[in-house]
Design brief:
This protein has 351 residues and is of the alpha+beta class. The protein has three domains: 8-82, Winged helix-like DNA-binding domain superfamily/Winged helix DNA-binding domain (Arc Repressor Mutant, subunit A, Orthogonal Bundle), CATH 1.10.10; 90-129 and 231-343, Beta-Lactamase (2-Layer Sandwich), CATH 3.30.450.40; 137-226, Enolase-like, domain 1 (2-Layer Sandwich). It is 45% helix and 18% strand. The chain has twelve helices and ten strands. It has helices spanning 8-24, 30-36, 43-55, 72-82, 90-97, 106-121, 174-188, 193-207, 213-226, 251-263, 265-272, 323-343; strands at 59-60, 69-70, 124-128, 137-146, 149-156, 160-167, 234-237, 281-284, 296-305, 308-318. The strands form three sheets. The chain has a five-stranded antiparallel sheet, with helices on both faces. Strands 4-5-6 form a three-stranded antiparallel sheet. It has a two-stranded antiparallel ribbon with strand order 1-2. A hairpin with a 2-residue loop joins strand 4 (137-146) and strand 5. Helix 1 crosses helix 3, helix 6 (106-121) runs antiparallel to helix 12 and helix 7 (174-188) packs across helix 9. The protein starts with 7 loop residues before the first helix and ends in an 8-residue tail after the last helix.
Length: 351
Amino acid sequence: MQEIQLDTRARTLLRTLIESYIRDGQPVGSRTLARTSGLNVSPATIRNVMSDLEDLGLVHAPHTSAGRIPTAAGYRLFVDALLEIRTPNREQVEAIESRFSPGAPIKDLLGTAGSVLSTVTRLAGMVRLPRNRQVALTQIEFLRLAECRVLAILVIDGKEVQNRVLELQRDYQPAELQSMANYLNAHLAGQSLQMVRGQLLAEMRSVRRDVDAMMLAAIDLGERAIGDDEPDDVLVAGETQLLGYEELADIHHLRQLLEAFHEKREILAILDKCILADRVQIFIGRESGLEWFEHCSVVTAPYSVDGEIVGVLGVVGPTRMSYDRVIPIVDITARLLGSALNSRGEPPETS
């Protein structure tokens, strides 16, 4: 887009057209531009400029004799060179900040960020979880709930508590459960949760052939309590918000779009493109690399802990989104998420 040079009049008309289309969702005619652009030119002159912009691939007419609408290339030039950002006021920033609870578990903070993005922008919000998050198992305890039912309590990084109800084949008494917890804590406390899941429990089983039946039962219980399920790499919130946009109403593309949110693989690939960026990134239409994002734009921003980028968040919506409002909201939410993670005192690590 840097190769396209527009004079002041063409830039003004293109900006006016795109702002009008974003606001109203209707093709913009020459008479409307003559009335709203602030330029002292005739509709005939505007038609000539529109013809030039169409030749440049920046606008097109969806129907004969209709007004014009921006193309993906037009949006790109608009975002790169013509957009005037609307910085949120202090009250709006404080309203977003109030949603982040100090000291909340990391996954709760990440979920809050996605929810905030979706609610405030009325688009689909998404958050890339910290890559290769390294957390340590502080303590594990077992509480008998009923016959053959036990509550496993995991304390992670000394702060985060995870609970899981286990259905067992046999009943254990409180004293037995305490012995099992003591055994596991002696061998696992302070170890990386990833290491515990992937290696240590298996090693304990394989090298300690002489352990008694109770200790083997403890290892079994530990494996079930800790599990091998990692949280989803991407949290998505409010994807149904996209159902309300007419330009995304094509059932085929809408189905593919919703499937992308469900499977998350494509969304993860988009976010991973931005993990090394230190600023807001914007993909318009097929710039994302996905054919069914032809009528969508993606706005992302990285979030940092102790000055190091650990993840990315953003929104997906129609190309006809209010970029001037959405971009700063995404940027501010990323900064507030990073601040909330910093306040925990033990930030997630990355590879």
